[in-house]
Design brief:
Elements: E1 2-6, E2 9-10, E3 33-34, H1 36-51, E4 55-61, H2 68-76, E5 80-84, H3 94-108, E6 112-116, H4 127-135, E7 139-149, E8 152-158, E9 163-169, E10 172-176, H5 188-194, E11 199-202, H6 204-207, H7 238-248
Parallel strand pairs: 1-4, 1-6, 4-5, 5-11, 6-10, 7-10
Antiparallel strand pairs: 2-3, 7-8, 8-9
Helix pairs in contact: 2-5, 3-4
The structure holds flavin-adenine dinucleotide.
């Protein structure tokens, strides 16, 4: 089975980052890490490829930098990576990004596409569904368990109260939640091998795709500081005031 795994390189969440004052985009450092969300997708892809004697191709769009994040995923065991790094794509919204990723995935050929549910920096949470639409395949989303049997992919789809069992014929796309599998740590051998694995860098022109981004960031404001809570002194009636407040907040 040919598995394509979407992976995003993001600024290290543990380090402070800057926003460009004009465009409001994140100033992307050379050192970027693999989005933690996508480690689950990579692990899932590797397990399915191992079961079916298949391959795992990483697909990513964004500034490649020193490829640190991509190498992390290759060190886990992925076979190769395709990265679309094109300055003209800066500011792309989810739909434009999905269009580009779809063109790259179609060019590679695939049986199954795996993506995270929501990236750690962008948080849009809609790219996988858009990507499936561009590829013309079913989207099985919020998977907390994935299995493949013959030409059928089955997932347990996380819901608020439990899970639904969903299946579809391949080719298909699956978006996975954190916890779908336990991502492996790269071994020393894996880290060394990752240095010589193929990484292809493409532009939108190479894919013959023209993208239009309709979304524009017009302003950014800091989130409001958390207001201090209300202090209720116990005069013997405090419990009544607390119950009234909880009722007002519709908590009870
Ligand atoms: C030059 C350039 C600069 C960019 N700068 C930024 C930036 O500052 N901030 C930003 O958030 N994005 C940036 N991007 C990437 C792109 O705009 C976003 O990836 C896109 O808008 C998706 O948003 P999201 O991460 O919220 O998607 P979500 O829908 O939250 O992502 C869900 C899943 O989709 C997959 N996915 C999402 N984006 C990508 C991707 N780019 N490549 C591979 N898989 C992906 C991952 O598996 C992810 O877990 C840049 C791209 C380029 C080319």
């Amino acid at each position: 089975m040919r598995v394509a795994v979407c992976v995003k390189q993001i600024p290290d969440p543990a380090s402070p980052y800057d926003l460009d004052p004009d465009t409001h985009f994140v100033v992307r450092p050379t050192d970027q890490v693999l989005d933690d969300t996508d480690r689950y997708g990579v692990e899932m892809g590797l397990q399915l490829a191992e079961q079916t004697e298949g391959t795992v191709t990483l697909v990513s769009m964004g500034p490649s930098g020193n490829l640190q994040g991509i190498r992390q995923a290759l060190a886990m065991g992925a076979d190769k990576a395709v990265i679309i790094d094109d300055g003209t794509l800066q500011g792309s919204d989810s739909l434009a990004t999905a269009g580009i990723l779809a063109a790259a995935i179609q060019r590679e050929g695939f049986d199954l596409v795996i993506a995270g549910t929501e990236s750690t920096d962008g948080y849009a949470g809609i790219l996988p569904q858009q990507l499936a639409e561009f590829l013309g395949v079913p989207a099985l989303t919020f998977a907390k368990k994935v299995s493949v049997e013959g030409d059928t992919v089955r997932i347990e789809r996380q819901t608020q109260t439990g899970y639904d069992e969903v299946e579809a014929p391949v080719p298909a796309l699956v978006s996975v939640t954190a916890g779908v599998v336990e991502p492996r740590y790269p071994t020393f051998k894996g880290i060394m091998q990752a240095k010589s694995k193929p990484v292809e860098t493409l532009t939108a022109g190479d894919l013959g795709v023209e993208v239009t981004t309709k979304q524009k960031i017009i302003a950014i404001r800091p989130a409001p500081e958390r207001a201090s809570g209300e202090l209720i002194e116990d005069d013997g009636e405090a419990h009544l005031k607390i119950v009234a407040l909880l009722e007002q907040a519709k908590v009870i």
